[in-house]
TrEMBL record:
It comes from the Bacteria. It comes from Streptomyces bottropensis ATCC 25435. This is N-acetyltransferase domain-containing protein. Transmembrane segments: none annotated. It holds the Pfam family Acetyltransf_1. Residues 1-74 form the N-acetyltransferase domain. One of its GO terms (molecular function) is acyltransferase activity, transferring groups other than amino-acyl groups.
Length: 74
């Protein structure tokens, strides 16, 4: 098994007044192009499970859920 290079989109926020105009999609496309040029084979992003809008956005832009992290308060 060989290691896979992964690019992580750590944080992205588009102000509500600028949503639905394609800005977020353009930012993701630019990130993906940069990551591919840098040698990444996969791109990943995280979103809170309660943030359905973000999850839908990333799914529309080619991302798919791969795992779920479960937490409990201590």
């Amino acid at each position: 098994m060989r290691p896979v290079k992964v690019a992580t989109l750590v944080s992205m926020y588009v102000q509500p007044a600028h949503r639905r105009g394609g800005l977020g999609a353009r930012l993701v496309a630019q990130f993906s192009a940069w990551a591919k040029e840098a040698g990444a084979e996969l791109a990943e992003v995280t979103a809170y499970s309660s943030n359905a809008d973000a999850i839908r956005f990333y799914e529309r832009n080619g991302f798919a859920s791969q795992s779920v992290t479960l937490q409990t308060a201590l």
